[in-house]
Specification:
It is a single chain. By secondary structure, the chain is an alpha/beta fold. The model has no long low-confidence stretch (mean pLDDT 88). It has twelve helices and twelve strands.
């Protein structure tokens, strides 16, 4: 049988209100009384009814996280970080998988789960500004990722241009001069990848190193297969880079496989840098140098932003919130300077 506040109060010889104050961590409880109640809680194995607590506040205690691809380790790792961050505030996370499909992203953003969730964290790929300008759902929304919006919602990302420049600067410091970029999207300048492409170009230009279009390889997606196909197309075109900066780690891993099949050694013939710092990159035959976004910080900031909205502490217009990143050097860029 479930232990109630009344059971704890009777066991500790205090009022139900005192137990409630301890459970809810109210400050005006003496240390001795808090210890007495906590001892009763521990002995009886009392667990708060979080559902009832949220309902008293007019909430469900559930937030949603919608990501393009749960099969992508980056989003799986990010989801884990969001779940952990939400649990610290006694919220449960509902996961939605949009597959990067615009219609599904619109459906999620327009509140088809509005009666279930208290807030939504959305990482979109195809969603456009106009899709969200027509949003009528009043469930708080936080946006993640490289897409840029001019909308009244908080947007959390790392500085993708600076991160890309850091990756290219690292390759230049290793003596590389023909640095390819794998992962461009040519259908729209506002699609994800444009900021990382801009960073690639800016760093090369500032260093006085050519950045010809022949070194920019578009892809139809950002997985291992696309990385392999992009690397094969580049080599088949007769272009021979001495380094590759990939949109993400999956593209980099696919590219490294093709380089191996073509008899090109990583890093001696071609150095490779990825982006995302997924676990797979740490355990390959050649470990992958990568840009590591602070996923835990992104998750904490996203949850904090939703809680801020739920508490009514928001101002008109959205905020641009930036998490840190760092470059992690591994075997794929060791060697030549």
């Amino acid at each position: 049988m479930r232990v109630s506040l009344k059971d704890v109060a009777e066991h500790a010889g205090v009022s139900i209100k005192t137990v409630s104050n301890v459970v809810n961590n109210y400050p005006h409880v003496t240390p001795a009384m808090r210890a007495r109640v906590q001892e009763a809680i521990d002995e009886l194995g009392y667990r708060p009814n979080l559902t009832a607590r949220h309902l008293r506040k007019g909430r469900t205690g559930i937030i949603a996280l919608a990501v393009p691809e749960l099969g992508n380790p980056y989003f799986a790792e990010l989801a884990g970080a969001v779940i952990d961050a939400a649990a610290e505030h006694e919220f449960t996370v509902l996961l939605d998988h949009t597959r990067g499909n615009r219609e599904q992203e619109v459906l999620v953003s327009q509140g088809f789960r509005a009666n279930v969730i208290d807030g939504l964290i959305l990482s979109p790929l195809e969603l456009e500004d106009e899709d969200l300008r027509s949003r009528t759902d009043d469930v708080p929304l936080v946006l993640l990722g490289e897409r840029e919006y001019e909308l009244p919602y908080d947007h959390i990302a790392i500085d993708n241009v600076s991160a890309a420049r850091s990756a290219v600067r690292h390759l230049l410091s290793r003596g590389r001069q023909r640095i390819a970029y794998l992962g461009a999207r040519t259908d729209s300048a506002n699609r994800p990848a444009h900021l990382r492409l801009a960073g690639w170009r800016e760093e090369l230009t500032e260093a006085g190193v050519p950045a010809p279009d022949e070194l920019v390889v578009p892809v139809g997606g950002w997985d291992r297969d696309e990385g392999a196909r992009a690397m094969a197309r580049l080599l088949d075109s007769g272009v021979r880079p001495d380094a590759v900066f990939a949109y993400n780690d999956l593209v980099a891993i696919g590219a490294m496989r093709v380089l191996h099949e073509r008899g090109l050694r990583v890093p001696w013939d071609v150095a490779v840098v990825g982006f995302d710092d997924i676990e797979e990159g740490r355990f390959g035959a050649v470990t992958l140098t990568t840009i590591s976004p602070d996923k835990q910080a992104i998750a904490r900031m996203a949850v904090a932003s939703l809680l801020r909205s739920l508490s009514g502490r928001t101002e008109p217009g959205g905020r641009e919130l930036t998490a840190d990143f760092r470059l992690i050097e591994r075997e794929s860029t060791l060697g030549r300077r």
